Amino acid sequence: MTESSDTSTNTAAVQPDGASFSKPASAPAEPKRQGGLHGRLWELLAFGLLYALAVVGFLYLASGSAAGLDYWKLLVGIIAVVALFAGWSRSRRGFFGYLVATLLHWGASILVLYLLLLQLGHLNLDVQTSGLPLIYVVGLACVLAGLHLDFRMLILGAYLIGGTLLMGGLIDTSAIDTQAVEAYVSHRDAVLIGAAIAGFVLTFFVGLFSPKRAS
Predict the structure, then answer these.
(1) How remote is the C-alpha of 32 from its chain's centroid?
(2) What pTM was estimated for this model as a whole?
(3) Least enclosed by CB within 10 Å: which of 47, 90, 95, 173?
(4) Could you tell me what percent of the chain has a pLDDT over 90?
(5) 145 or 129, which is more confident?
(6) Taking the alpha carbons of 70, 71, 77, 79 in that order, is the dihedral positive or negative?
(7) Average pLDDT for residues 98-113, to the nearest whole number?
């Protein structure tokens, strides 16, 4: 009788201690979840910025301003930086392998853009005619980055290529009704803006449901 009562007393005494030790173990879960939410929010804002800058770039190029090409040169660098940081959270490669692959991809893309601009500079073309091939190459670079590094870049690349086709008059968008906003923007600009919004929403859902690297 004495041994059984002592055992029950010891068990009861141990239980509160075990309960007290189990609580701190679950404490880091909340900061980890908040860090994941902050990371997704940062990526969402970054891709939203890219789509907004792309729309501005198309409108800037359509205006015929000589600075339109310089704008797209700068935008290529911004896209590469966002792709580098946002893609790491989805990559299954080691850090060194991912860094080398990303730098080689965007370094080669920027080199091709430089050579293309060098060649176009000898042809004395207008700003829009020179800028459209530039955006084609940027869009292709994004598509390839999406296939090998981060699928969300593929969506951005598809938007850039589609927007360039629209700017060149190679896509018929007459079936798209934009009369509600044509008092403020042209039909072509409305289609560009609407496609950017659609691309951003699709990017959001892809980022929401695609697995992130375990931290």
Answers:
(1) 22
(2) 0.79
(3) 95
(4) 46
(5) 145
(6) negative
(7) 93
Least confidently predicted of 33-37, 51-55, 89-93: 33-37
SS (H, E, C) the chain: CHHHHHHHHHHHHHHHHHHHHHHHHHCCHHHHHHHHHHHHHHHHHHHHHHHHHHHHHHHHHHCCCCCHHHHHHHHHHHHHHHHHHHHHCCCCCCHHHHHHHHHHHHHHHHHHHHHHHHHHCCCCCCHHHHHHHHHHHHHHHHHHHHHHCCHHHHHHHHHHHHHHHHHCCCCCCCCCCCCCCCCCCCHHHHHHHHHHHHHHHHHHHHHHHCCCCCC
Going from the C-alpha of 80 to that of each of 31, 35, 62, 193, the distances in angstroms are 30, 24, 24, 22
Cβ neighbours for 146, distance < 8 A, ≥ 6 positions apart: 152, 153, 154, 155, 156, 157
Total length of the chain: 215
Residues in Cβ contact with 56 at an 8 Å cutoff, skipping those fewer than 6 apart:
71
Residue 204's identity, in one-letter code, is F
Q: Which amino acid is at 178?
A: T
